């Protein structure tokens, strides 16, 4: 998020379709196309986790499991798991602009049960499902068991289950329920397979189109959650898993009595004792499904508002110290630098500001808050925006611009009009969005409701209220061409247009190249495809340029194996690793197949390689120049109980070498050689440019000169010049 960009905030549930709630189906793909058409970079969504009491995505039964309400029936029908008559005549709600959560919960369940039954009966899906179970074994079984047992007890909260032994997870009792509820447990596992299969396909489509997903991670989990059931030591609970203290915030711009969230508070001492392992795992899992992660209530890591577990409002509580930078330092050590957005709204003190600065994450600015202060001194005023932040018209907790504006005083309304230079025929939504995109903030995000110029009925959430929230749904007719044109115009005008070239997924590259899936290929074939995939991505990158140019000339370049390094530098290592894992393949096994380029042998070659790597990462205009040795390294073998050295041939049909049409005639005393030039692309870490390693070879090299081990005719320079690096070693 270091360059000027923009995006749209709209949750999946708000997408239009005929199933009562937005899903991962065609309307989601259409929305991606809309983002591409209007030159956006980001699609920001709310948490994808399961929803519990109050239908809030911020109160979930699991910190990891996906919301089955978002599973698309048409996609299940395409898999042969449903017939259209199984769902097309179902009544999912009477108002297409609102989600009726109670109705869809009852209406969707029997349809999903049909799909699960058909799925289990089809052997063709078994390998993929078993692989899904294996890759998600750390959470899937616990979640499925929790949900099945919860249903068994009438969907009551964990603390209200009639069997105290199962609340405490007594081993024999747990074994009994696993047997008794095996079918229900299977249902919850399979629906998670549906969820993640459909979501991954949608995310792949978005990424291929150059659209990145900004996900959302609530800081807390629900008291009625699988985490509280399976990991009670991480929370402040009594013996029956009731929260001793709960989360919330004191009075702020969202609520005069504060917000009582009711989530159990963490036992931060225990988290520290465990090296923050659960947080590292949770964030790592989030980045498997999102490209960027917004962490909700970032202040809670600095200081958190502690309210008695039996309190009815959040107003009376106290601030307690959070884990601070220590947590994020542990995350960084394990996961590296991650694109994280810190939600730093509300009562942000100096301690929280220091934590944000130490972490280096961008914070948020809400223009609505800025315009409410007619003195212009607000932290959120457009003129107080900085490049390293994400600026919004509003979030899910704000009223939409039209509703907000109508509730302003006459003085505040005039301030908005004057500040934005609102035109006579310009809506207040357009004026504020235009001002948003004009700020210096690197990233600007507008809500879909504001882009559509909708009134207050489309507001997503009113904090500190229960019921009537999270319901808004867009209609296809809302998105008119003039609204698309406006968004495209201001995105381009304020230099936020998405310039990123869409990157094809590896699995799609393989499908296009071989007409086969990853599951159908062996490791050797996958290695060949990976090599070509990386070379294909690298080919699109321009060469570093500049008035000055560095040539590093060396007798050798000990560059080592390139596959992993190139995947990391391209920023696709984890993505490819996950794709392979979903196909039951191991990237580490495939990495072992790669032959090491025999271009260097020692410190001289390693130093040369470090230089050309560093210059590529620094974006310097530089090239390496050397010779293309065919057998620079020897491999050791045992023959007849003796250790022997043999040539280590590395130039195969598929290699990192890129042939060029460049050749030179090189005169020697008694003959002339033809020197041809091959290149290897040298990629800098997450750079949009590259450098070259130029390797000169002779066309007349002759492997037949090698007779025994590494012995060869050393006098025949015409045919052996680039055969070995150090033939006498």
Note the topology.
Elements: E1 5-9, H1 26-37, E2 42-44, H2 73-78, H3 101-121, H4 126-135, H5 140-152, H6 164-167, H7 171-180, H8 182-208, E3 212-217, H9 226-230, E4 245-249, E5 259-264, H10 268-273, H11 277-289, E6 292-295, E7 303-308, E8 318-321, H12 325-335, E9 340-342, H13 350-359, E10 363-366, H14 367-372, E11 389-392, H15 401-406, H16 410-420, H17 428-438, E12 443-447, H18 448-451, H19 481-493, H20 506-514, H21 523-539, E13 550-553, H22 563-570, H23 573-582, H24 587-593, H25 603-617, E14 622-627, E15 634-639, E16 642-647, E17 658-667, E18 672-683, E19 690-698, E20 706-708, E21 711-712, H26 717-720
Helix pairs in contact: 5-8, 11-12, 20-21, 21-22, 21-24
Catalytic activity: Transfers a segment of a (1->4)-alpha-D-glucan to a new position in an acceptor, which may be glucose or a (1->4)-alpha-D-glucan
Family: Belongs to the disproportionating enzyme family. Belongs to the glycogen phosphorylase family.
Keywords: Carbohydrate metabolism, Glycosyltransferase, Transferase
């Amino acid at each position: 998020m270091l360059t000027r960009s923009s995006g749209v905030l709209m949750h999946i549930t708000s997408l239009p379709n005929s199933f009562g709630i937005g899903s991962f189906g065609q309307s989601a793909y259409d929305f991606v196309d809309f983002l591409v058409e209007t030159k956006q970079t980001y699609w920001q969504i709310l948490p994808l986790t399961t929803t519990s009491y109050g239908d809030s995505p911020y109160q979930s039964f699991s910190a990891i499991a996906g919301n089955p309400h978002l599973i698309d029936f048409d996609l299940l029908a395409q898999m042969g798991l449903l017939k259209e008559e199984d769902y097309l005549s179902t009544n999912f709600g009477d108002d297409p602009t609102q989600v009726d959560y109670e109705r869809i919960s009852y209406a969707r369940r029997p349809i999903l049960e049909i799909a699960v039954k058909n799925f289990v009966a089809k052997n063709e899906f078994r390998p993929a499902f078993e692989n899904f179970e294996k890759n998600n074994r750390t959470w899937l079984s616990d979640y499925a068991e929790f949900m099945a047992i919860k249903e068994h007890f009438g969907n009551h909260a964990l603390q209200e289950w009639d069997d105290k032994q199962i609340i405490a997870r007594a081993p024999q009792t747990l074994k009994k329920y696993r047997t008794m509820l095996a079918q229900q447990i299977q249902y919850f596992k399979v629906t998670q397979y549906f969820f993640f299969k459909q979501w991954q396909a949608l995310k792949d489509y978005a990424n291929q189109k150059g659209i990145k997903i900004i996900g959302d991670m609530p800081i807390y989990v629900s008291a009625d959650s699988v985490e509280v059931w399976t990991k009670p030591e991480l929370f402040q609970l009594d013996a029956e898993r009731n929260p001793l203290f709960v989360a919330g915030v004191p009075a702020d711009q969202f609520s005069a009595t504060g917000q009582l969230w009711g989530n159990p508070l963490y036992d931060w001492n225990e988290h520290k004792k465990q090296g923050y392992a659960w947080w590292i795992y949770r964030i790592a899992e989030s980045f498997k499904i999102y490209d960027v992660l917004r962490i909700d209530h970032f202040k809670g890591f600095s200081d958190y508002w502690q309210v008695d577990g039996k309190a009815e409002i959040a107003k009376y509580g106290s601030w307690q110290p959070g884990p601070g930078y220590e947590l994020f330092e542990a995350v960084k050590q394990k996961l590296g630098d991650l694109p994280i957005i810190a939600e730093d709204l509300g009562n942000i003190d100096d301690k929280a500001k220091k934590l944000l600065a130490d972490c280096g994450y961008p914070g948020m600015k809400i223009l609505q808050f800025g315009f409410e202060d007619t003195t212009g001194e607000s932290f959120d005023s457009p003129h107080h925006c900085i490049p390293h932040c994400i600026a919004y018209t509003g979030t899910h907790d704000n009223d939409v611009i039209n509703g907000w504006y109508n509730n302003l005083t006459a003085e505040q309304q005039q301030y908005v009009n004057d500040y934005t230079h609102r035109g006579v025929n310009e809506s207040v939504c357009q004026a504020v969005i235009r001002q948003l995109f004009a700020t210096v903030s690197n990233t600007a995000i507008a809500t879909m409701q504001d882009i559509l110029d909708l009134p207050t009925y489309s507001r997503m959430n009113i904090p500190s209220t229960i019921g009537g929230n999270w319901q808004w749904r867009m209609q296809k007719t809302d998105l008119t061409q003039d609204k698309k044109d406006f968004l495209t115009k201001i995105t381009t005008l304020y230099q936020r247009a998405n310039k990123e070239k869409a990157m094809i997924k590896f699995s799609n590259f393989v499908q296009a190249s071989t007409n086969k899936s990853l599951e159908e290929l062996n490791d050797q074939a996958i290695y060949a495809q990976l090599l070509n995939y990386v070379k294909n991505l690298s080919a699109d990158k321009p060469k570093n340029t500049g008035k000055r140019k560095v040539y590093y000339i060396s007798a050798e370049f000990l560059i080592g194996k390139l596959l992993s390094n190139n995947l990391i530098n391209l920023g696709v290592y984890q993505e490819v690793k996950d794709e392979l894992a979903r196909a039951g393949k191991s990237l580490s096994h495939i990495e072992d197949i790669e032959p090491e380029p025999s271009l260097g042998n020692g410190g001289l070659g390693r130093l040369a390689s470090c230089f050309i790597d560093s210059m590529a990462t620094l974006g310097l205009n530089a090239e390496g120049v050397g010779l293309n040795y065919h057998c620079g390294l020897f491999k050791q073998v045992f023959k007849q109980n003796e250790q022997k050295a043999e040539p280590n041939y590395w130039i195969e049909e598929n290699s990192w070498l890129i042939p060029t049409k460049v050749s030179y005639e090189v005169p020697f005393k008694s003959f002339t050689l033809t020197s041809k030039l091959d290149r290897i692309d040298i990629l800098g870490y997450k750079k949009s440019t590259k450098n070259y390693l130029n390797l000169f070879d002779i066309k007349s090299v002759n492997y037949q000169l090698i007779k025994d081990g590494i012995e060869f005719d050393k006098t025949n320079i015409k045919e052996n010049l680039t055969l070995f690096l150090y033939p006498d070693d």
